[in-house]
Amino acid sequence: MKSIERRFANLQETRPSLSSYTNFAGAVKDGKFGPATIRRWFNRLVEKGDYTGMNKRVLISNLDWLSNPVRTT
């Protein structure tokens, strides 16, 4: 099973200088995770200081798009 938490922890370990939001985006990229899963782990793993002042709904929508990009034929 693919785990956002495991992927996030690996990225945090290899790229500690980046923000938790950036590493979270890398963890969900092309992972085909559902919106509810992304939202749940976003709330648990991403530090509030990394997205203060931004619309959380828009951020999660963008993360959903990263996880499930539109296919081109």
Note the run of SSEs as H and E: HHHH
Q: Report the C-alpha radius of gyration, rounded.
A: 12 Å
Distance between the termini: 28 Å
Total number of beta strands = 0
Helix content: 55-70%
Instruction: Tell the overall outline.
Output: globular
Helical run tally: 4
Structural class: mainly alpha
Q: Approximately how much beta-strand content do the residues carry?
A: under 5%
What does the largest sheet look like? Answer: none
How many distinct folded domains?
1
State the low-pLDDT regions, or none. Answer: none
- Which whole number gives the mean pLDDT? 92
Task: Describe it.
With 73 residues, the chain is mainly alpha-helical. The protein has one domain. The protein is built from four helices and no strands. It has helices at residues 4-14, 20-28, 35-45, 56-67. The model has no long low-confidence stretch (mean pLDDT 92).
Kindly summarize this structure in a few lines:
It is built from 4 helices and no strands. α1 (4-14) crosses α2 and α3 (35-45) packs across α4. It has 73 residues and is mostly helical.
Provide key terms for this protein.
59% helix; globular; 73 residues; 0% strand; 4 helices; mainly alpha
Question: What's the layout of helices and strands?
Answer:
Elements: H1 4-14, H2 20-28, H3 35-45, H4 56-67
